Amino acid sequence: QKEVEQNSGPLSVPEGAIASLNCTYSDRVSQSFFWYRQYSGKSPELIMSIYSNGDKEDGRFTAQLNKASQYVSLLIRDSQPSDSATYLCAVNMFSGGYNKLIFGAGTRLAVHP
Amino acid sequence: EPEVTQTPSHQVTQMGQEVILRCVPISNHLYFYWYRQILGQKVEFLVSFYNNEISEKSEIFDDQFSVERPDGSNFTLKIRSTKLEDSAMYFCASSEFKENEQFFGPGTRLTVL
At residue B86, what are phi and psi to the nearest 5 degrees? Predict the structure, then answer.
């Protein structure tokens, strides 16, 4: 069973701090990795994609990928109360030639003023 | 900015009834997906669709489910005889290429009574 694991949290950080979210995955052949943000009662909103080892930065967000360790992370700098949400790690499972996303259970982030 | 749309936003039905959930993917996207999220649980893959046929389906996607692209813009999910356990948020997603980012619609909340 191919799995994506995340710490459910909640992760509580003060406003302005760095939030660090982590994810591990079991399928070694996975090639595409995504972070989605989901507010309560809403749909997943894509915030970052990463395809190769290393870091990828976009504004306040940095995704980090280590395929050898099967580990992907998301850093949020200068955290704001509006960042309070559940962050979903999703891995593209390339089974059968077509992609499907396998999601982790999500980490709840709470940014307090 | 192009987005995935879904209708209705909320559907209430009686157990055993048929429901059709509708989605309009982003216009230049070629790959379409349905996911569902039972309250408090992970986002789960149901089915992927490309070139007018199912590419992959999960074990959840049994004979009660079907998908169709009836015209050049709509993508539908039909549940033939709904069960109480089908109550969930159903998300449609689309991507331009098979390993690319998937963009999610706002979802349809299905309540089976």
Answer: -80, -5
Helix (H) or strand (E) holding B54: strand B53-57
Q: Distance between CA atoms of A8 and A23, rounded to whole angstroms?
A: 10
B window 44-73, beta carbon within 8 A of A: 44-45, 48, 50, 55-56, 58
Torsion angle in degrees (nearest 10) through CA of A54, A89, A83, B95: 90
In a mutagenesis test of the B interface, which of A99, A102, A103, A107 is the best target, namely the one with the most B β-carbons within 10 Å? A99
B89: nearest Cα among B64, B112, B59: B112
What is the maximum alpha-carbon separation in chain A?
A: 47
Length of chain A: 113
- How far apart CA B6 and CA B75 sit, in angstroms, is 9
DSSP string, A33-56: EEEEEE-TTS--EEEEEE-SSEEE
Per-residue pLDDT in tens (0 to 9) along chain A, 113 residues? 678 999 988 999 999 999 999 999 998 888 899 999 999 999 999 999 999 999 999 999 999 999 999 999 999 999 999 999 999 999 987 765 657 899 999 999 999 99
